[in-house]
Write a structure and sequence with these properties.
Its cofactor is Mn(2+); Mg(2+). One of its GO terms (molecular function) is DNA-directed DNA polymerase activity. This is DNA ligase (ATP). Helix content is 21%, strand content 27%. With 938 residues, the chain is of the alpha+beta class. The chain has five domains: 254 residues, 4-Layer Sandwich (Deoxyribonuclease I, Chain A); 196 residues, D-amino Acid Aminotransferase, Chain A, domain 1; 118 residues, OB fold (Dihydrolipoamide Acetyltransferase, E2P) (Beta Barrel); 114 residues, DNA primase, PRIM domain; 172 residues, DNA primase, PRIM domain (Alpha-Beta Complex). A six-stranded mixed β-sheet has the order 3-4-2-1-14-13. A hairpin with a 2-residue loop joins strand 20 and strand 21. The chain is globular and about 95 Å long.
């Protein structure tokens, strides 16, 4: 027998979803909550047509509960005993059916805490507990089923720290639930899943379902008479992903037949599905020639280990990453920089003897006598051959004419084990289905470099840094560019230290300190031979560093002189920390890296584990199916001409992938802008536009176009304009959806409107503060945004937040086109000055990047003529196809991420929230009154 509970969140609005699920799942008994329909409006006929009888008690605006059954059903109660006059919502109904007494309940939500609704929740719970005490020891089977609006334990939420002040997770609420269970009830789901995160609810906001940021709110409590019949339990999670569905998913339990007893059949969740026959896997893989070259998939560095289900773990080897192209009689090892490794001939010879055609991914290491990888020994292996050479293979990308990169990792692992012969020189790297935190602690005790965590169902994305492969380092290591060396007065060494740096995204080399240990005389002599051809007079760093700069760790100058080198050599270092001014401390040289392109060496910062894991767990990341964006374009055609607002627009190359890692096409982009136009056009209308064009997608070259003279179709409006350089231009002026889609057809992934309109070009409609982080975590951006709000609240000024869609946040203040850009900029400067005074440790007002010392820029200078930033609801040319999304201030909390709002979920969010930014186009503040108030406040 199958019993289910489902908070339907509006039965008539979601009746198609309910009926579809009932046909699919066929439960014997169903408890429904939040009918949000009067008793007379219950859809009895539709329910009965599926073979269910029902009892129900409606509530027009909010609650209401019902029980459906495939057998005769008799109502026993339609409320709890006792009265409470403060709130009168319908929350409990009790029936007898299938020889079971079943109570269907909806416990009050109780938010906000503290408050009268929370007090009422506890009173209602007391009434529930009193009634339950009389049911628990009945001779009849009894169950109390429904939405308890309680998370009993940390396992019942994805992020316990986020809910400390939420009524669903308050200690008083959790204790009330535990007191109820202590009467003798069995929590069915927790009994069968004692150590697993099982969620039944996902908020509509911020793509909670996509991130699996869920809660367990729906519970089954069984009395001893029926608990012994418990067989299985689960959540039909997929229903939460249906269109126009509830924020809850149906949860269910399965019981043995009456009179029978059954041991639960639920096993702990397995990482891997049942193993498939390798020949079947290979048959399903697409045919493809052996790739001429392939760059390896890269892992994202995160800050700590974790224990989420669905991940496997490997040792992080300290060696050279190598792709092996294997053919009968020959093999080639290739570095991640597409250079051949010709020094490891034993590995090549062994691979060539295998008589297979394959492309493998692995790591070449040199093992010491303890079995640990020694990078220094690997570097010198050609000369010494003193260490044991091993090629650890952890992936197979191509085999015998078949492309395997589109198969899940666990299936690739099965193929790998089946096709590579056993060898002491070449080994399949073991993977472990274990507790990640314990595995990491073991790695540290074994003095290993770290561990790699991989989604068991991850696909192989070549030359991409994936968030489905994560590395957790036990030691802090960093590849750096050698851009010079120093020599202290009186030393007899070849050099005293290396001057090292890393590149930023603009390919500018930044100095990050010196490395003065880790090399002996022989190594220094070999390195000097590499340095001499590269000596140059000019420092290659963006700012010539003071290589003798004193510090608290070395206050005395040693008379060191710098010799600069062309930045063509890379080495690896180990270090203790990075100081506040961006320098490495206690750095030690670990070896040269001739397998790395210097321009690819950037400072690797640790991402937040919880955030990255949540993103990696999105369902769309673990499947080969592309999530199609529905819309107005024919999916069968690659080129179309469509009339929009009377304007014929041409849409070409629709299948071209603009976001290749996410398989998001131009067609998807056009369909998104068509769907979002109703929300977006009010913020574009009558504004000149700056066109930022990406004709070949986010990784191709881009350029700005402002002048559309003789280029825009006649149906587009234009504005003659002379810029501050005296140049005559004609700007596109957006007027409607056609304007938006024409810009998109040019490859404008992001949309950049002016702050002012053509009718008042010198008077912006809003003032903008752009929070532009450098190395800060996004939670610090959130903190800065909240300080801006505090300052604005003190002045009585409304401020509207939105994500930038990239790394920062944009904060808008309505001006109503009553003031000049100069006045707007001055106003923004006053605000950010007060903000900077409160959080000076990580914010800066310096315009020049080099003067900010890595701090977050509080940008007030955006408030000037011709300036633009990514507009409201604009897509961004970033992996994941993120969207610049307006927020309510309740959402501006730690844990918010850019990936919460993407091309996939933004339209459904807007249907739920509406336009949160309307106030930006409102009347505007009174600057004179505001500044007068500011003088009295600050």
């Amino acid at each position: 027998m199958k019993i289910a509970t489902y908070n339907i969140n509006g039965i008539n609005n979601r009746l198609p979803v309910l009926l579809r699920w009932l046909k699919e799942a066929r439960p014997d008994i169903v408890c429904l909550q939040e009918l949000k329909a009067e008793t007379s409006a219950f859809p009895k006929a539709a329910i009965e047509a599926l073979g269910y009888q029902a009892i129900w008690l409606g509530q027009r605006s909010w609650n209401g509960v019902a029980i459906l059954s495939t057998a005769d059903i008799r109502e026993l109660r339609n409320d709890l005993p006792g009265k409470d006059e403060e709130f009168t919502h319908s929350r409990y109904i009790e029936a007898f059916t299938h020889n079971i007494v079943i109570g269907c309940l909806y416990l009050p939500n109780g938010n906000p805490w503290p408050g009268p609704k929370f007090d009422y929740k506890l009173r209602w719970f007391e009434r529930m507990a009193e009634h339950a005490q009389g049911l628990v020891n009945r001779d009849l089977p009894v169950m109390l089923v429904g939405d308890y609006n309680v998370m009993p334990a940390d396992l019942d939420t994805y992020k316990p720290e986020k809910y400390v002040n939420n009524a669903l997770f308050r200690p008083e609420t959790k204790q009330a639930y535990q007191n109820l269970v202590a009467q003798g009830w069995t929590d069915a789901i927790r009994t069968l899943y004692p150590n697993e995160r099982v969620y039944t609810f996902w908020d509509y906001l911020r793509d909670a379902f996509g991130r699996n940021a869920g809660l367990r709110l729906d519970h089954f409590l069984l009395n001893p008479k029926i608990a012994e019949r418990l067989v299985d339990a689960g959540v039909d999670k997929h229903v939460r992903g249906w269109e126009k569905t509830s924020d809850h998913a149906p949860a269910w339990i399965e019981l043995a037949d009456e009179g029978g007893k059954a041991k639960p059949k639920r096993n702990p969740t397995a990482v891997n599905p049942a193993k498939k026959d390798v020949t079947v896997l290979l048959k399903a893989a697409p045919k493809k020639k052996m790739p001429a070259s392939i760059k390896p998939m890269k892992a994202t560095l995160v800050d700590e280990a974790f224990d989420d289900a669905g991940w496997i773990y490997e040792v992080k080897w300290d060696g050279y990453r190598a792709i092996a192209k294997v053919e009968p009689g020959q093999a080639e090892l290739i570095s991640r920089n597409n250079l051949p490794f010709d020094q490891f001939t034993p590995v090549n010879h062994q691979l060539g003897k295998w008589n297979i055609n394959a492309v493998l991914d692995g790591e070449i290491v040199a093992l010491n006598d303890k079995g640990n990888a020694n990078f220094g020994a690997l570097q010198n292996w050609r000369n010494t051959k003193s260490a044991k050479l091993v090629y650890y293979v952890f992936d197979i990308l191509w085999y015998d004419g078949k492309d395997l990169t589109g198969l899940p990792l666990n299936e690739r692992k099965e193929i790998l084990k089946a096709v590579i012969p056993a060898s002491e020189l070449i080994k399949a790297s073991e993977f472990f289905e274990v507790n990640g935190t314990e595995f990491f602690e073991t790695a540290k005790k074994m003095n290993l470099e770290g561990v790699i965590a991989k989604k068991a169902d991850s696909l192989y994305t070549a030359d991409a840094r994936s968030r489905e492969w994560l590395k957790i380092k036990a030691k802090r290591r960093q590849e750096v560019v050698i851009a010079g060396f120093t020599k202290n007065e009186g030393t007899g060494k070849y050099f005293s230290a290396l001057a090292i740096g890393v590149y930023d995204q603009n390919e500018t080399l930044h100095y990050i300190g010196k490395v003065g240990s880790g090399f002996n005389d022989r190594m220094q002599k070999e390195m000097m031979a590499q340095f001499k051809p590269l000596i140059t007079k000019d420092s290659p760093f963006d700012v010539e560093p003071d290589v003798e700069e004193p510090s608290q760790f070395r206050p005395r100058r040693l008379g060191a002189k710098a010799t600069w080198l062309k930045p063509e050599l890379v080495c690896e270092i180990e270090f203790a920390e990075i100081t506040g001014d961006g320098k490495v401390r206690q750095a030690s040289f670990k070896g040269m890296r001739n397998d790395k392109n210097p321009k690819a060496v950037i400072l690797e910062t640790e991402a937040d584990t919880a955030e990255v894991v949540a993103e990696a767990d999105e369902p769309t990341k673990s499947t080969t199916m592309k999530k199609e964006i529905p819309g107005f374009l024919d999916p069968a055609k690659d080129s179309q001409t469509v009339k929009v607002d009377g304007c014929p627009l041409i849409f070409n190359h629709l299948s071209k992938e603009y976001w290749p890692e996410d398989h998001i096409t131009k067609r998807d982009m056009f369909n998104y802008y068509d769907a979002v136009a109703a929300y977006m056009v009010p913020y574009l209308k009558d504004r000149p536009m700056s066109l930022n064009r990406f004709p070949n997608g986010i990784h191709g070259p881009s350029f700005y176009q402002k002048n559309v003279k003789d280029k825009a179709p006649d149906c587009m409006q234009k504005m003659p304009h002379t810029n501050d350089k005296g140049e005559q231009k004609e700007y596109l002026v957006a007027t409607n959806k056609a304007s938006l889609l024409w810009m998109a057809s040019l490859g404008c992934i992001e949309i950049n409107p002016w702050f002012s309109r053509v009718g008042s070009p010198d008077h912006p409609d809003f003032c903008v503060i752009d929070l532009d982080p450098d190395n800060q975590h996004f939670d610090q951006v959130i903190e800065a945004a909240l300080v801006v709000k505090q300052v604005c609240d003190a002045m009585g000024v409304p401020v509207y937040p939105k994500t930038s869609g990239s790394t920062g946040m944009h904060l808008y203040i309505p001006l109503g086109a009553k003031y000049t850009y100069e006045q707007s900029q001055l106003f923004a400067k006053i605000i950010v000055t007060h903000v900077h005074e409160q959080i000076p440790d990580y914010t800066s007002l310096e315009r020049m990047v080099k003067n900010r010392a890595g701090k977050m820029y509080l940008d007030f200078l955006q408030n000037r003529p011709d300036a633009t930033i990514a507009g409201v609801y604009s897509l961004r040319p970033k992996p994941g196809a993120t969207v610049s999304m307006p927020l309510s201030w309740d959402e501006v909390k730690p844990g918010l991420t850019m990936r919460d709002f993407t091309i996939h979920n933004s339209i459904s969010r807007l249907k739920e929230t509406g336009d949160l930014f309307k106030g930006v186009l409102g009347e505007g503040v009174d600057l004179a009154a505001t500044l007068k108030k500011a003088q009295s406040v600050f």
